[in-house]
Write a structure and sequence with these properties.
Layout: H1 7-10, H2 18-23, E1 33-36, E2 44-49, H3 66-69, H4 92-97, H5 107-110, H6 115-118, E3 128-129, E4 140-141
Parallel strand pairs: 2-3
Antiparallel strand pairs: 1-2, 2-4
The structure holds iron/sulfur cluster (2 copies).
One iron/sulfur cluster binds next to helix 4.
């Protein structure tokens, strides 16, 4: 199925095809970093990544089976996006759900999958696998 240009400006999230929906992900990898829940206030962010995250590509190594392999992997949908307040404010799903446009570095705008890394948005070179990390508390980031 052909994807019309700039579909994200003309369709709601719920109207998108699966292909369009998937293309919204900029590949930043930020949603695959562990967070530490706080009794009060927002969760603390860490630079510790899920063991399935490829730290170079910032993509999941088994995306098709992610929620099967990683129990707490959250699959983002048009139905739950509003409740996922822990997603980074750069996340395309969050931006579009809030009525905002995609930023210039988004691969759909730049036509370059590397632009998210070049703009310093992704976790490339800035995360450690949970397999190599110790206490999450030692890896809290701003
Ligand atoms: S935070 Fe959003 S844009 Fe970034 S990898 Fe996760 S789903 Fe994709
Ligand atoms: S399993 Fe989920 S949290 Fe882990 S890398 Fe894949 S998409 Fe990210």
């Amino acid at each position: 199925m052909n994807t019309p240009p700039e579909f994200w400006r003309t369709k709601t999230l719920a109207q998108m095809t699966p292909e369009e929906w998937e293309s919204l992900c900029d590949g930043c990898g930020k949603c695959c970093l562990h967070k530490i829940a706080q009794p009060q206030g927002p969760a603390l962010k860490t630079c510790v990544a899920c063991h399935l995250l490829d730290s170079k590509s910032c993509r999941c190594k088994n995306y098709a089976r992610r929620s099967e392999i990683v129990r707490n992997c959250v699959v983002i949908t048009p139905e739950n996006i509003e409740s996922l307040t822990w997603l980074p404010n750069t996340c395309a799903y969050r931006l579009l759900a809030a009525g905002d446009d995609l930023p210039a570095w988004h691969p759909l705008i730049s036509n370059d999958p590397e632009s998210v890394h070049q703009a310093g948005i992704s976790v490339r070179g800035r995360c450690i696998s949970e397999r190599n990390a110790g206490r999450l508390e030692d890896y809290v980031i701003p």
